[in-house]
Amino acid sequence: MGTITDRVKQVLSFYSSDNVGVKTNLARLMNHGALAGTGKFVILPVDQGFEHGPARSFAPNPASYDPDYHFQLAIDAGCNAYAAPLGFLEASADKFAGQIPLILKLNNSDSLAKMDQPISAVTASVKGAVRLGCVAIGYTIYPGSSARNTMYEDLRELVLEAKEYGLPTVVWAYPRGAGLSKDGEVAVDVVAYAAQIACQLGAHVVKVKPPKDYVEQPEAKKVFEKYNIPTKTLADRVRHVVESAFHGKRIVIFSGGEAKETDALLQEVRAIAAGGGFGSIIGRNSFQRPRPEALKLLGDVIGIFGALPMPA
After folding, report:
1. Angle, to 10 degrees, between the axis of helix 218-226 and the axis of helix 188-200?
2. What is the pLDDT of residues 143-171, one digit of tens each?
3. Domain segments of the chain: what residues?
4. Is the model's pLDDT at 310 over the cut of 80?
5. pLDDT tens, 195-211?
């Protein structure tokens, strides 16, 4: 890994209760790729084939049907890591062993069943992550679903098991369920609440969607107004989410979401960086583009985070 920067040491200090293995793997994540040493992250996640189906995910760029494609894209772009379900990692991990840190997504759901109260199935194991040489496990929770307690309880067990093997946990915290409106899934109060829940459950890294300027919960709305919590700009909202993740003492990264125009995506990334987000995790917006365009986009995103001075 080479020399550990002061910023990486600072971030590792946020996880003082964790064992050496967990901290070493967090350091591996922070010391790989073009952003090595900055404490910033750009990660390629490719779970969309499972979540949305092959045609919706890969038809825009047919080369991306091949699991090898995503490994090579993450490596060539200088990403910190590549995250995927069991099948995609098993298909290519041997060919690319040691070339990119891997995150095994331990639960997944498909879009064939239309559910008011979603829950993902556990589709892989901590031992599988160790076998494949991964540096972390990933897991999705759906705060807002009536099935959330099952997901929370399963996650706590997986976090504890992963720690025994020296692996940190990345949690996809996606509010979803009949208790939330569609706008509520990305409301600033709800996204911040989801980040807090993930941190309380033991997440080392939290992945959330960029929050919108909307407050879903009436009880929260009163507090936002009473204390004048800024929400007008995305940078303001990102700042609130990061503050909600233990005052910035947990790594919070933001998804790229649905495919969008390059200028809009980069504008969003600039706001995330300005608000103190630790990084971006960009899937469809990269691999659905032709490879040269994807590399250019990821390079631009990396450049935005890399251009910021490291915190003191």
Report:
1. 100
2. 999 999 999 999 999 999 999 999 999 99
3. 40-306
4. no
5. 999 999 999 999 999 99
Check 82, 139, 174, 193 and give the catalytic one.
174
pLDDT classification of 303: cutoffs 50, 70, 90? very high
Residue type, 278: F
Determine whether 227 is an active site residue.
Answer: no
**301-303-309-312 Cα dihedral, nearest 10 degrees:** 60
Catalytic residue among 40, 105, 207, 212: 207
CA 43 to CA 50: how far, in whole Å?
18
Superfamily of chain region 40-306: Aldolase class I (3.20.20.70)
Cα dihedral sign for 144, 145, 146, 150? negative
Active-site annotation holds for 174: yes
List beta partners, residue 252: 206
Helix axes of 67-77 and 291-306: crossing angle, nearest 10 degrees = 40
pTM attached to this predicted model = 0.96
What is the pLDDT, as a whole number, of residue 257?
72
